[in-house]
Fold this protein.
Amino acid sequence: MSIIVAVLVFGLIVLIHEFGHFIVAKKCGIGVIEFSIGMGPRVWSFEKGETRYSLKLLPFGGSCMMLGEDENESDPKAFNNKSVWARIAVVFAGPLFNFLLAMVLGIIIVHAVGFDSPTLTDVQPGFSAEEQGMQAGDVITKLKHEPVVVYRDITIYMMLHPSDPVDVEFKRLAADGVTWEKHTVTLTPRYSDENGRYMLGIVVSGCYTKAQGIGETLKYGIYEMVYSVKTTIKSLGMMIHGQVGRDDVAGPVRMVSMIDETVEETIPYGMSAVILTLMNLCMLLSANLGVMNLLPLPALDGGRLVFLLIEAVTKKKVNPNIEGMIHFAGFVLLMALMVFVFMNDIKRL
């Protein structure tokens, strides 16, 4: 069951990505040879217009095969014969649709369970927050000039800067009970032997606050997507700076294991809890795929965008043979990375 759920989750994310390429290609008048659900040999298909729509044997992922995408074609509907901005739109549409999927899922999740407000419920004695006069009811709005929208913004900041002093901006309800007063303090984290980590001394209950009205639901739902993108980018930064070990990197095999654990842990709370948890995981993975595909690396959408942007600036196409060789080399490296991640997953399991 967990494998089926994992396949459906990964399949939805990749399918939405490919659908983004497909729908924008159609809008730009580019011929689409085949749009498929799944990978491998065809199980069932039909043709409508110029496009074959296929259901394939392996029920994950999908593909959008466009006319003249990887070779020269004289047909005016060929991908390479369209304007550079049309091609940029088609390539960018895949990651964009992943972000849109994450946003829709975020809105549904916030509507169902609310959001984690950065409102203090208490301060711990002996830590910097108490010494600087912070108190229950204060709402943290910025950490070192970085906006704080949800409590998780604080946790990820502390994970990246565990022992650094930080300027904290917060608001407090005034005595009239209507207006908010802004305050700024500098907090210095202190190591807690009991908790085994540096702490500012702020306490948040962990309870989610129900969104009030459609406006707040949209605001925090969209921010769920933004937060997922931010954490992905910050995680990449941690990898580059060596703050993430190989055991912290999860591939498809480990993701299936994590989905299995997630389903088993949430089943006692009912099917709605399982669905919402899987939606949250799907949101994170979709945002992750969107960011990863925009990296300026050969064989990824981001790598293709680099060549298209060069063409847009210079008004000249990059030699297709050179571009093809670069993308092929990037593809080989990506395959090698996938093998490494797969073997690392097996080792961890």
Remarks:
- Residues 17 and 314 are 29 Å apart (CA to CA).
- The beta strands are 32-48, 51-66, 122-123, 139-143, 146-147, 166-173, 180-187, 190-192, 197-199, 202-203.
